[in-house]
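Sequence in, structure out.
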Amino acid sequence: MERNYGEVISGMLIQLAQIEQSLEKENTRMEAFDKRMEMTIKRMVKAESRLEASENRMEPFDQKLERSLERMNLVDKKLEQSIKDQKEFSVMQSQMNKYFLEYIKNGNQK
């Protein structure tokens, strides 16, 4: 059986040309992908720097808020103590009133 090497070689050359074209298309797509990836990375870096800048701007407000919360906690503690003191005074006043009412009742009965 005789082979026609010219046809075999031409078929191989056609296949090589097709492979080369598909590789070139793939390389073009990869270059475009790389460019998009670079742009995405640049955008992310910019967004991160803006976020850091905004966090730095918010830091004094956060500190002020913390101080305000600490002051509010102190005020709450003082208010709780004041309420406790008022309750104790009210209980003591009630006991004194009961004592005087009993004294008056006992004094009128004699």
